[in-house]
Amino acid sequence: LKYRDYITVESLQKAYELNQKRGNVLIGGNGWLKMQDRQAAKAMDLSALGLDNIEENDDKFVIGCMTTLRDLETNAALDSCTNGAIKESVRHIVGTQFRNCVTVGGSLFGRFGFSDVLTMFLALDCQVELYHKGIISLAEFAEQPYDRDILVRVFVQKTNRQSIYLSFRNQATDFPVLTCACSILDKNLRVVIGARPAKAKVLEIPSAQVGQFLLNKNQSKAENINRFAYWASEQFSYGSNMRGSADYRQHLAQILIKRACTALMEGTDGD
Ligand SMILES: Cc1cc2nc3c(=O)[nH]c(=O)nc-3n(C[C@H](O)[C@H](O)[C@H](O)COP(=O)(O)OP(=O)(O)OC[C@H]3O[C@@H](n4cnc5c(N)ncnc54)[C@H](O)[C@@H]3O)c2cc1C
Fold first, then answer.
1. How many Å apart are CA 147 and CA 168, to the nearest integer?
2. Cis bond upstream, residue 197 (ω within 30)
3. Which stretch of 130-144, 157-171, 215-229 has the lowest confidence by average pLDDT?
4. Distance in Å, CA 88 to ligand 1 centroid
5. Model pLDDT for residues 248-263, shown as the tens digit of each residue
6. Which amino acids bring their CB within 6 angstroms of ligand 1?
7. I need a surface site. Which of 28, 31, 124, 260 has the fewest CB within 10 A?
């Protein structure tokens, strides 16, 4: 990848204007971009805009788009708010040096099928701020077609949500074969499966249905979770690629959902 020109933009407005021109490229950590084999006109670097940090307010975390995955991994407050799930979601990605460079903005804007980061954030109560479109839910953003907007910040609400992140890799540091994040808030359960190998999808299970599945007194807790995990795994579609077949992925989804729900029920005393 070659850039003919490189600038550090002094405002988001300038970055947005320049980004409307095809051939100009917004760069986050340049980790994914550098894998390409092409010439681009201008690289626009957002690193001088103070968007490389995580702020904690009373009700939410505000994560700037230039925050690195390593910053996510090592932020103690985010770690405790997500029961260690955020750290778990990024710690398998390539290596520490790589995670010190690549950004939250590049990871979420890319909406990569294999993305641990997208899977994790979809399981949280989370919104994104786009320069042009304003603030929308990450779930809505994930479904939108690619455009030339700028992802500025991510907001993670501070609630009592319990969350857990699991992934399966054939080999350490490789792309995941399947990713799974589950979270529960007020007995409403959210299951997210990614690397299907398509982009992560969200399944919302309202509290009444959670009760029917998981608190059925006629079966043991393990049987309830097994039945639920099988049902939930069937609600997603899967495909095959060099890392695994569709059937294998569905099998993995069932296992990871089962493990995640078991851990979540333990964390909430099974109530
Ligand atoms: C070899 C390799 C292995 C990887 N393995 C994994 C893995 O196992 N799991 C995983 O989850 N991820 C993995 N990734 C992806 C990685 O974690 C990052 O998500 C990826 O590098 C993008 O982040 P970046 O900061 O490098 O973005 P860049 O490469 O700089 O940009 C990526 C795209 O996003 C655009 N962009 C960047 N910032 C913004 C912004 N703020 N607003 C709008 N558009 C923007 C760019 O124009 C570009 O189109 C891997 C990447 C590589 C190269």
1. 31
2. yes
3. 215-229
4. 18
5. 999 999 999 999 999 9
6. 25-33, 35, 65, 69, 93-94, 102-103, 105-107, 109-110, 114-117, 150-151, 175-176
7. 31
- What is the 224 CA–ligand 1 centroid distance (Å)? 38
CA angle 51, 21, 33 (to 5 degrees): 55
Ligand 1 center from residue 67 Cα (angstroms)? 12
Taken in order 137, 196, 183, 52, the sign of the CA dihedral is negative
Q: Using 50, 70 and 90 to split pLDDT, how confident is the model at 270?
A: very low
d(CA 237, CA 99): 30
AA letter at 246: A
Task: Tell me what the mean pLDDT of segment 127-136 comes to.
Answer: 98
Ligand 1 atom 27, closest CA: 106
- Beta-carbon contacts of 80 under 8 Å, excluding residues fewer than 6 positions away, are none
Which residue type is seen at 26?
A: L
Q: In what order do the strands lie in the sheet containing 54-56?
A: 54-56, 60-64, 151-157, 126-130, 134-137
Tokens of 79: 């770690």
Instruction: Determine the distance separating the centroid of ligand 1 and the alpha carbon of 237, expressed in angstroms.
Output: 24
